[in-house]
Amino acid sequence: MKKHLFFLLLTSLTHPAYAQEAKIDSSRYPRLVTFTAQQDHDNMKQQLGITKLRPGPSGNDSAPNHANYDESIANPCPLLPDVLTTRAGKQVTTADMWWKQHRPELIEDFEREVYGRLPKNIPKVTWTVKITDREFVGRTPVIARQLTGHVDNSDYPFINVDINMMLVLPTNVKGRVPVLMMFGRPSFPSPAQPSSEDMEKLNTAFKEMMIKSNPEMKAIFDRYPAYTPVTRLPGPNFFAPPPAGDLSPTEQLLAAGWGYATIDPNSIQADNGAGLTRGIIGLVSKGQPRVPDDWGSLRAGAWGAARGLDYLETDTLVNAKKCGIEGVSRYGKAALVTLAFEPRFAVGLIGSSGKGGTTLHRRVFGEAVESLTGSGEYHWMAGNYIKYGASEASFGSKTGCDLPVDSHELIALCAPRLTFISYGIPEKGDAKWLDQQGSYMATVAAGSVFKLLGVKDIGVSNDYQEEKMPPMLTDMLDGELAWRQHDGGHTDAPNFKYFIPWATKLLKYERIQAQ
Q1: This model's pTM is above 0.70
Q2: Does domain 104-190+249-506 have CATH number 3.40.630.30?
Q3: Which of 34, 87, 260, 266 has the most crowded CB, counting CB atoms within 10 A?
């Protein structure tokens, strides 16, 4: 046992990470705080003067505290904040009033109470192309770049942040191409493989290495002289008929002359409360707990996406003025926050984003504000958001009805840029919990800002209390604000074949085949 512990200690002391940390003069820096999610949550409650929170509803319909799905009681405060009325009570009647007066007011409220503020001292990101590979995705030749965005941590070297992103661009298209950035896990789509000659060399070297490691292997290889342990993966078959059904979303993008980038939000900020003193949030705070209006992980993901766009602006194959952002579920929330706060993104595909995304906070249907103020998902938001789940606090109690803003105004912050709101249906797994109706109401209410700024919305009145959500598969794609509920589950994949031509047309992008 003692030998085992000594070995572990010796291993840890000789590990490169420890060796690097040992070189740091820790007296120069604040001590790195390590909290569990519950400890961090409790710390924020204490800062806010909260002694008791209302529990969030259960997603189990048979549980005593099951979520409400009764539409008759889903709107305890049915009147939304008027998206075209300033804090001084003035009606916003011109685009100039929107940009100079009311939009800054909304941003202030969202930053302070909902998603948090970006710190002023966020360090710079330096992008490095780690690998460039020429591949085929289906029948499309592409160039794939594996990218790392290193965040300067010289002011607090105990925390390292390297943003992980993969960029895939079609090479059969002339000129710069639009790119859809997607939150997810990056990987090479179809890594190029060695030639037959190189494969033979690899197998020869591999057999020699195996025999040297274990001489018994020679007898096995002698019995099977034609066997090659290292084999090629199946490559694209250009003579095979096209696959039945829809291509994958990435193949559809490439076939339409778009590129795509996949950015890993977990390489920017961990998706848990314990990680708030780590990642980009922890790096900027030097490992200290947040204060109430500090940014949460959704805003951190949006910041990371903006840094990814910084790189895209430097790539000569990319039309950075026609780039978009996409995500589903919690990544759908992050995509909407990105589009709202980063004006350089021209288009967004917001998939099944629920509460904290396109669904109204004031609605009590399925997922509730209390679902986001408890210790499981609070890290998505600013600490101040927890106030709206409080039942006992120094300030009394608050609910979602007390929020100064709501999701229709977040959608409005995206105007007049292209904003596609996507949902599936509960029967296929896009659960009622997400409150598709609440998202439709928010989309309807946001439309008045799109109209004010000279573009089209989904083509209905902006009376969110009277307009009825249309049946699934109804296309509402005639304007810069779009809505479509597909007949699938918790994904936006079925809507890509509608999103791509919609965005291509409105961005005025023309695919030109390379010679």
Answers
A1: yes
A2: no
A3: 260
